[in-house]
Each structure stands twice: as C-alpha cells, then as structure tokens.
C-alpha cells in the first residue's frame, strides 16, 4: 500500500510541475494559449502525457526508496548518541520509539517535508554490525556516509 501511495503522490507532483511549466510558457507568450496548438496531437496529447507520467510514477518508488546498512561498531550506549547527533545534524528529529525497537526520524523543516511529499521518514533498525536505514535513497546514502565517517 505504501508503494501505491508514493506512486500517486509522485504522479500528482509530476503533473503539477508540468502544468506550471506550460502555464509559464503561455504567460510568457512563448507558446500559444490553445492546447491544440501547443502539442502535435492536440488534446489527445494530454492523456498520452498523463500515461507517460503514470509510468514514471509507478517506477519511481522502486528506485527512489532504499534500505542500506551502516557499519557502526560498538554497544548501544556508544553508538546511539552518534546516530542521534548525525540525524540532528542533517535536520531530523526522532519520533517516539515503536514496540519493535525500530527508531524513526522525520525532517524538522516544513520545506523539506514538502519537497519530499511528506515521505521524509527514515527508519533505523539496530543490526549486528550497526544500523539499517530505510527511506528516500539520496537521504539514506548521505546518512550512511555520515555515520561511517563519524566512527
């Protein structure tokens, strides 16, 4: 279900960006104001574009969200302060810990939340060699590298 929700959010984001770009082009008088004159296939192009954007939106969550392991040796008392410090330095605040021992962090900034379509949660699970982080790929990669550099 999470995958489907992410796909729908990404589809809406793509369509909003496309509408803004077309509106700017029309207001700047770069293209005519009539849709049938902007696109080769006229109004038929709209559903073709929407279909293409839906395909991108359906694929994106598969590649945009990852799970990676950060090797951080030490006991919980040693490494949890390092984790919290790195997460805070990258603009995350810790959510209340769940029953299963999984920690979750969310972005502090509303702007960051907006650009990530409120999919800003990074879940951190303790494993034998350190932590396993899951979330948006670019954020997880930055955090794993930061954790690696701190140890």
Summarize the structure.
The chain is an alpha+beta fold and about 150 residues long.
List the defining traits of the structure above.
5-stranded antiparallel β-sheet, alpha+beta, elongated, single chain, 151 residues
Describe what you observe in this structure:
With 151 residues, this protein is of the alpha+beta class. The protein has six helices and five strands. Helix 1 crosses helix 3 (44-64) and helix 4 packs across helix 6.
Tally the helices: what do you get?
6
- The N- to C-terminal Cα distance equals 36 Å
Strand order of the largest sheet: 1-5-4-3-2
Q: Can you tell me the overall shape?
A: elongated
Poorly predicted spans: none
Extended strand count? 5
Q: In what range is the share of β-strand residues?
A: 15-25%
Q: What is the overall pLDDT average?
A: 84
Q: Give Rg in angstroms.
A: 21 Å
Element layout with pairings:
Elements: H1 2-27, H2 35-38, H3 44-64, E1 65-71, H4 76-89, E2 92-94, E3 103-107, H5 110-115, E4 122-127, E5 130-136, H6 137-150
Helix pairs in contact: 1-3, 4-6
């Amino acid at each position: 279900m999470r995958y489907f929700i992410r796909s729908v959010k990404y589809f809406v984001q793509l369509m909003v960006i496309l509408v803004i770009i077309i509106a700017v082009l029309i207001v700047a008088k770069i293209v005519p104001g009539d849709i049938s004159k902007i696109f080769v296939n006229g109004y038929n192009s709209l559903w073709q574009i929407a279909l293409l954007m839906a395909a991108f939106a359906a694929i994106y969550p598969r590649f945009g969200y990852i799970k990676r392991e950060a090797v951080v040796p030490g006991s919980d008392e040693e490494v949890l302060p390092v984790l919290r410090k790195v997460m805070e330095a990258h603009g995350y605040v810790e959510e209340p810990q769940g029953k299963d021992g999984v920690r979750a962090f969310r972005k502090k900034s509303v702007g960051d939340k907006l650009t990530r379509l409120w999919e800003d949660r990074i879940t951190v699970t303790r494993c034998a060699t350190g932590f396993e982080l899951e979330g948006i790929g670019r954020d997880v990669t930055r955090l794993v590298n930061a954790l690696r550099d701190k140890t």
